[in-house]
Amino acid sequence: MNLLGVRSLSRAEYKVQGGKLIRIQLGVQADRISQIKITGDFFMHPEELIDELEKTLIGETLDKQNLIRCIAAFMEKNGVVLLGALPEDFAKCILMAGGKDG
Fold it and tell me: Partner of 102 for a Cys bridge, out of 17, 26, 86, 95, CB 3.0 to 4.6 A?
């Protein structure tokens, strides 16, 4: 943890049932997401909205139900289609990167 209370970026990988992989790089400050990068071999259409999803997650707490709600609302609002993963899978991997049980 640095002087500002931000841990260095932590990482997690989660293999979704059925074989798709989600990778998360995460920075946390005061139990809230301060930085996040989402990659993997899942499919998201339109794919350019992954950056917007990351921005949407900044400031969110590391709480499973909150993350699922936030991700699902983003998907619905923006007409995003996920193939090979669910909002729950992203939440699980985010929590794993944050050192919490998914």
Answer: 95
Structure tokens at 80: 């995003």
pLDDT digits (tens, 9 = 90+) for 68-83: 999 999 999 999 999 8
In total, how many domains does the chain have? Answer: 1
Comparing C-alpha atoms, which of 27, 100, 38 is closest to residue 75? 38
User: Under DSSP, is residue 78 helix (H, G, I), strand (E, B) or coil?
Assistant: helix
pTM: 0.89
Which regions in the chain score pLDDT beneath 50? 1-4, 6
Q: Is residue 19 part of a domain?
A: yes
The dihedral sign for the CA sequence 36, 40, 43, 48: positive
Cβ pair 74, 54 in contact under 8 A: no
CA distances from 36 to 16, 18, 19, 67 (A): 19, 24, 23, 13
Q: Does 48 map to a domain?
A: yes
